[in-house]
Amino acid sequence: MINTKDAITKISNGEYDNVLKDVYVDENVLDYQKKRYINAIEQYETIFCPDDVEIFSAPGRSEVCGNHTDHQHGKVLATSINLDTIAIASKHNDNIIKLVSDGYDMITLDINDLRINDDEAGTTVSLIRGVLKGLKDKGYKIGGFNAYATSDVLVGAGLSSSAAFEVIIGTIISGLYNDMKIDSVEIAQISQFAENVYFKKPCGLMDQMACSVGGIINIDFKNPEKPIVKKITTDFEQYNYSLCIVDTKGDHVDLTDDYAMIPSEMKKVANYMGKEVLRECDSNEFYLQLAKIREAVGDRPALRAFHFFTEEKNVQNAVDALEKGKFDEFLDAIKKSGNSSFKYLQNVYTNRDVQHQNMSIALALSESLLRTYGVSRVHGGGFAGTIQAFVHNDFVDSYKSFIDNVFGENSCHILKIRKYGGIRVI
User: Fold this and answer.
1) Alpha-carbon span 198 to 345, nearest angstrom
2) Which is it for strands 228-231 and 216-220: parallel, antiparallel or unpaired?
3) Are 41 and 88 within 8 A, CB to CB?
4) How far apart are CA 414 and CA 24, in angstroms?
5) How far is the C-alpha of 119 from the C-alpha of 65, rounded, in Å?
6) pLDDT tens string for the chain (426 positions)?
7) Residue 160 exposed, middle or buried by CB count within 10 Å (0-12, 13-18, 19+)
8) Burial 76-113 (b: 16+ CB within 10 A, else e)
């Protein structure tokens, strides 16, 4: 632990510069992060008091490849990014948690009451209660703490701000009460439990896993109860590429049915073939039965099944390319992933509103601009919102300028691949 006054002094004096560079990768954000950390500590002091604290971080995430495959027990490639939730926290022994998130009222929670409360569904307190319940049921020690949290993970951009929050709670408990010994995969699974059972949102595990484990990870959901998580050993910075997330300012309103139809239509194909999900189906058998499948369930379910089988190969090719250091092949796999999402998965715009195609415009513009400087694809669930692009550092500023001119200032967010998941920074 470190006293808040000492922490402010040491951060100001540059004593943690190397730590922050290691965590956030981009030296250009060092001054911003130092000011951010100092401000968070000062907020903690104002709300609570000068104290001995620990500082924790949990990153946002980006889906790199494997678009809409996890719910079919498929494979994904995801990464943590250098946007995160940080928390200034100190333990105490009264079994009460007091947490203030930047811009919100204080949450007070008694750890002796971890019952599911349906009235709390969709609230932050439900996530905290669910994470604590999951940790306690796994036999980990839990306890009270004071915390101030702040996040720069973009909300609504598909970067998993909620998963980062769940992971930060698990990481705080791991650090304050369990010597940072709770496995990151277990924190991810408990975070998903909190979101599914307490928050009442039926999410997959990819978001929490990427936020908690950190780095570039390949997740195989063949057995979703025990997903196989493989961290890809690669120094992404050596390739001189940045990850750009473009907010196309699309409207997510009334897209619930569009999102829900993807897994339901994929399962129609799987069910026709006598299986529950597409991962259980043989792709060769799918092609042989295609005529009958089209007649039985329609063309769009068939196309979305095409996407699943194609995307499984794209993920594997991207993983192999990174492990072999063949970055051109990695970019090719990402480009093919975007192509499959647009043509077969068809989640770039809703066919109920064809005059508003923000992501289609962003992808067309990106393809025209990038040429040999990078690739782009839909990001996350699709239909509105964001695209991602891997852009060579020599062209990043030009790319951002063009994108911002079309979609508005700061529509393009230049990010880096972060190698850490949920951690104790100080």
Assistant:
1) 31
2) antiparallel
3) yes
4) 12
5) 36
6) 999 999 999 999 999 999 999 999 988 899 999 999 999 999 999 999 888 999 999 999 889 999 999 899 999 999 999 999 999 999 988 899 999 998 889 999 999 999 998 888 888 899 999 999 999 999 999 999 999 999 988 765 555 578 899 999 999 999 999 999 999 989 999 999 898 888 887 776 778 888 999 899 999 999 988 889 899 988 888 999 999 999 998 765 678 788 889 999 999 999 999 999 999 999 999 999 999 999 999 999 999 999 999 999 999 999 999 999 999 999 999 999 999 999 999 999 988 888 889 999 999 999 999 999 999 999 888 888 889 999 999 999 999 999 999 999 999 999 988 999 999 999
7) buried
8) bbbbbbbbbbbbbbbbeeeeebbbbbeeeeebebebee
Q: Which of 231, 246, 225 is nearest to 396 (CA)?
A: 246
pTM of the model: 0.87
Residue 177: how many CB atoms within 10 A of its CB? 17
Locate all alpha helices (DSSP H) within 274-357, ordered by sequence.
Answer: 283-288, 290-297, 299-324, 327-340
- Tokens 């598909």 correspond to 158
User: 3-state DSSP call for residue 126?
Assistant: helix
Residue whose tokens read 């880096």: 416
